[in-house]
Amino acid sequence: MFEYMPYNLAPWGVEIVIYFFIIGLAAMTFIMAAAPETFGNVAAPFRNVEIPGAVITLILLGISGPLLIADISQPLRFLNPIIYFRPTSPLSWGSVLLLLFGAAVVAFLYGRFFDKPGIRRAAAVIGSLLALSMPIYTGIDLAANQSRALWATPAIPLLFVALSVTSGAGLVAVIQLVTGNFGPDASRMIRTIMAFSLATTFLLVFALVQTMVYGTAELQQAWDAINGEFSVQFWWLGIILGIVIPLILVLVPILAPRAEAARSPLLVAVAGVLGALGAYMLREVIIYAGQLPQLFF
Amino acid sequence: MISIGLQAEPSYGVPGKKRWAMVVDLRRCIGCMACVAACKAEYDVPLGVWRTTVQVKNTGKFPNARRNFMPRLCNHCDNPPCVRNCPTAATYKHEEGFVLQRYERCIGCRTCMIACPYNARFMLPRNRTRVGINNVVDKCTFCDHRVSQGLVPACVQTCLGRARIFGDINDPNSEVARLVGTHKTATLKPNKGTRPQVYYIKPDRKSMEQATSAPVSAAARRDAEAFYRHNNGSRFFSAHL
Fold this sequence. Notes:
The structure holds two protein chains of two kinds.
Chain A: H1 14-33, H2 35-39, H3 50-71, H4 80-83, H5 90-113, H6 117-143, H7 155-179, H8 184-213, H9 217-227, H10 231-255, H11 265-295
Helix pairs in contact in A: 1-3, 1-6, 1-7, 1-11, 3-5, 5-6, 6-7, 7-8, 7-11, 8-9, 8-10, 8-11, 9-11, 10-11
Chain B: E1 20-25, H1 34-43, E2 53-61, E3 64-72, H2 81-85, E4 91-93, E5 99-101, H3 111-115, E6 122-123, E7 137-138, H4 144-147, H5 154-158, E8 164-168, H6 175-182, E9 185-186, E10 198-201, H7 205-208, H8 218-230
């Protein structure tokens, strides 16, 4: 005879990773697109991304909604989390907030196209709050599971917010570059936002690494998985390409104001794309590696 | 503890309430797998998934060696995380302690599988012919349909060593209450705060610990691979192995 135990499967796969990434991207893109309405002249450099930003948010929601429905094994029951709403389930809250966020984006565009300032402003403020709830709810979706040691920390929702800010700022930079409206003010503002979000990401990931290295057996297993199976995604694509290089790209013009070449909007857009890549990879590693220690129990 | 929706309040130790529990006396388990077979027969559990398993682990080297058996099933926790996390209340806790599944509500989001520290839940495959319940999450029910008729679960009924004992732990005269009260027992991962209601007498340390590496069993791997092949195309298998 032999040692025998059944293989278990990691229940959440690539669809969840893509969904978490897209919804975070959409949320922060909308916050920046609606910023001139929400915060007034302080965010004036983002005025020209109001419409493209909100339209792209709607397109991203159009992708993420069906993706989420396709991921569940009973797609025709996708309204059940709302019909049978359960207040203790982060996923139930997420379904409702996602629907309301979509409605707010549509209302914002309606107010913008049909020149209804009241609706536009209300949709911008409420939509921004709902947008903020997107990365938070996806983070709590993980943090609520005490059975997965890597996820069961309040740092995860914060990390997801920081990752969303980086990827959203990156997308806004690309939109402005493509539409030819990437002025120095917008460039400076995006650099500042990304510097804060990337630095926050770095610190939170560093804290997570500390808890894994000095943590429980499950956390140490997750750390082993990250350094084994996911080392390329974590260290090279997530940390080096996704945090360190973009952080250097956005910090150089701040630390060395005379370096004119470093202020190129193209470099900000490149930093944004790299930051978005890192945001995806770190989510993937956290979602996968968080499930692995449990599989062989 | 608040009671929300179909989440019944914990009933362990509450006077006047029943609290079904199971004791697994590992001194008596011989690893015959009759409980697994009985469970498969009772529910037509498909190939590749199990409501209950018996894990086999060896310790030591010949001649100082031992084979350990560890029956595993849903722990019907008094504070079940799967129930809290289910977004549709498809998973609920019965007032007598059963943690049950409403198949018609389940959307197959697998959140409950994520929440369960014991890997007690599984997806039913899409290609299932004899029973019309497919593509939703399933689990051990403590045979609530049998218990409500005054019978014991199928695995308990068939256990030839009487290693599995089932009863109302709130009844001080029941066999499970007596065993838990008079023996050194252990539960799985009590630090997770789930208050599991499957008690083990004299478990082996290796069987209780979090496994740090993939199982060495070639048979288990063959089982898993056959299951994946059989269910090729199902959304479930896009998940990471």
